[in-house]
Amino acid sequence: MRILAIESSCDDTAAAVLDAGSVLSSVVASQDEVHNKYGGVVPELASRSHLRNIVPVIEAALEQAATRLDHIDAIAATCGPGLVGSLLVGLSTAKAIAFARQLPFVAVNHLEGHLLSPRLDGEVPFPYVALLVSGGHTSVYHAVDHGRYHLLGATRDDAAGEAFDKVAKIMGLGYPGGRIIDDLARHGDPRAIRFPRARLKPRRNGGAPLGTPFGTPFGFSFSGLKTAVWQYVREHAIDSEAAAADIAASFQETVVDMLLDTAFAAAGSVGCPRLVIAGGVSANSRLRQRAAAEAEALGIAVTIPRMRYCTDNAAMIALAAWHRLQRGESDPFSVNATADLEL
Ligand code: KG4
Ligand code: ZN
Q1: Of all protein residues, whose CA lies closest to atom 13 belonging to ligand 1?
Q2: What pLDDT, in 10s, does the model give residues 279-326?
Q3: Which of helix, strand or coil describes residue 261?
Q4: In this predicted model, what pLDDT tens digit does every residue of 19-78 receive, in sequence order?
Q5: Choice from 281, 284, 286 to test ligand 1 binding pocket (greatest atom count within 8 A of CB)
Q6: CATH code where residue 300 lies
Q7: Is 193 found in the same domain as 44?
Q8: What are the distances in angstroms from CA 337 to CA 78, 130, 330?
Q9: How many structural domains is the chain composed of?
Q10: 162 alpha carbon to ligand 1 midpoint, in Å?
């Protein structure tokens, strides 16, 4: 079974070819240069760039996999969550190819792609607890089996990646902020500034419907931290590279503290000795380093995808589709793009 998958939920245009679960190619065209001067993704510009990139990216994925559309058995695409205009480009392209070639079509939830991404490099047995940290999401799931993911906690406000991006913007560092802050923080002291850590107490469902962000026992909050950095930057002159590095390192350390505290507590609450960390922020070097060190002390096995599968890619979408196809599932062409699609 050879699958061509397309991912265009935000600002990366991606295509990949997967054969029997192995990645033959994974191509990503970044739009960082388009959005850099705005300090964040501009949805209309993202859609237009996807339109320009989508065909060359698919062609590159086929070429790198040394294959042709004639040899593809199924087509997959992300149908949500994400920016609707961006999602529609990849989804419509996938439907058009599947319709023209009379191939099965699979619409994939972007979050399921991230949750399964560590499996692109090897088996990670279920059950596991997954911390999903990206530009749009910060959640913890208990992944019991394929298609069975229970939400244990989610952010009450900003996503962790969004906090990285906004803090980079406040500091005038450019977009996307995560990688820039990660690099800058290497030269800084993580204990230089004590920013507030929001520690939301684990709680019983506080009246909100189960499975919704407010109806989960665990939670995250990053908007207070963002404001604290903003205030700090307003009150202190960032007059040297060293001063900027200290702010970056201290901010990053605070985010990592909050993410790991909650992820380990969530794993403990369901008695699960396996933690997966996925999504764009899982590329963060400090998070990777501390997760590995602290997990060992707690007797928890941590798996984080290699860098190219942390941020958005189509290989993870192909993998999610492959498991659904193996279960005999596919989707009708009536499936639409859904900005706030839940897992
Ligand atoms: O998963 P992803 O590529 O797209 C979404 O689904 O949102 O994640 C993008 C996010 C951005 O907010 C970016 O700043 C963040 O991941 N990111 C990082 C790093 N690399 C990317 N955050 C912290 N450290 C990094 N090294
Ligand atoms: Zn993502």
Answers
A1: 178
A2: 999 999 999 999 999 999 999 999 999 999 999 999 999 999 999 999
A3: helix
A4: 999 999 999 998 888 888 887 888 999 999 999 999 999 999 999 999 999 999 999 999
A5: 281
A6: 3.30.420.40
A7: no
A8: 8, 25, 16
A9: 2
A10: 8
